[in-house]
């Protein structure tokens, strides 16, 4: 049986790329019974009735998957956040980073719309970028309008499956239009009433850019830590993970425990206070989560 990769899912159909051909497939009925949902990025076994239509028979084992956006086998998450319009949000970025770290996906932070910043706003964004770099993250400042910084993205895209993810209206589609002008993806202005972007991407699709594939995904503004447990959270903050190696107590959660190196690093300014505050908020959120049966 032939094998291929799902590059688009839309209206109950899965579009499978096989030898440069795109075959529109449906999933087998047994998938629903077994609670299997094929995702964009899945490697699948399919049966083709002809050159255009077929059925997915098997979904191969995934190395990772995301729920929102729904995509599998991702090498890298390019987290696209705007400097302004909407304003840069560290708490939302940290939620994305936790989910990406938990799924062992390489994150890259891309801050867009730098051309719209004034001197004070630019200095603030550059300070945040510096702190995230100190934590070990790659951060690229860009502008789709002037194309500044875009060339720094290209080496990171080559030979990888990347997912563009971020809040609505931050410029994900605009960025893709610069990387591949022939796409002419629809973009939209920020809603002045809501202060956030109007949705322009309606489905998940893998788009070829150079020798890589990029998923443009519907924007969203919240993330739930559905599968993350209390003991997992420290490892989702690299600088907290590093400092925790010197905590006195094994399994230290860095809240009230004595001789906690994480709290000491926050007090000394080595770990930004906002990162630690987000860690504590997320920890409480996981603790308060209703048990699943």
Query: Major sheet: order of its strands?
Result: 10-9-8-11-15-14
CA-to-CA gap between the ends? 38 Å
**How many domains make up the 3D coordinates?**
3
What is the CATH fold-level name of the largest domain?
Answer: Rossmann fold
Structure commentary:
By secondary structure, the protein is an alpha/beta fold. It has eight helices and 15 strands. It has helices spanning 29-33, 90-102, 119-134, 154-157, 172-179, 238-244, 261-267, 273-288; strands at residues 3-10, 13-18, 21-27, 43-48, 53-59, 65-66, 71-72, 76-82, 106-112, 138-141, 161-165, 190-191, 196-197, 205-209, 212-216. Strand 8 (76-82), helix 2 and strand 9 form a beta-alpha-beta unit. The longest helix has 16 residues, at 119-134. The protein is globular, with a radius of gyration of 21 Å. The model is unreliable at 189-200 (pLDDT under 50).
Q: Helices and strands in order, then pairings?
A:
Layout: E1 3-10, E2 13-18, E3 21-27, H1 29-33, E4 43-48, E5 53-59, E6 65-66, E7 71-72, E8 76-82, H2 90-102, E9 106-112, H3 119-134, E10 138-141, H4 154-157, E11 161-165, H5 172-179, E12 190-191, E13 196-197, E14 205-209, E15 212-216, H6 238-244, H7 261-267, H8 273-288
Parallel strand pairs: 3-5, 8-9, 8-11, 9-10, 11-15
Antiparallel strand pairs: 1-2, 1-4, 2-3, 4-5, 6-7, 12-13, 14-15
Helix pairs in contact: 2-8
Outline of this structure?
This protein has helices at residues 29-33, 90-102, 119-134, 154-157, 172-179, 238-244, 261-267, 273-288; strands at 3-10, 13-18, 21-27, 43-48, 53-59, 65-66, 71-72, 76-82, 106-112, 138-141, 161-165, 190-191, 196-197, 205-209, 212-216. The protein has 293 residues and is of the alpha/beta class. Strand 12 and strand 13 (196-197) form a beta hairpin.
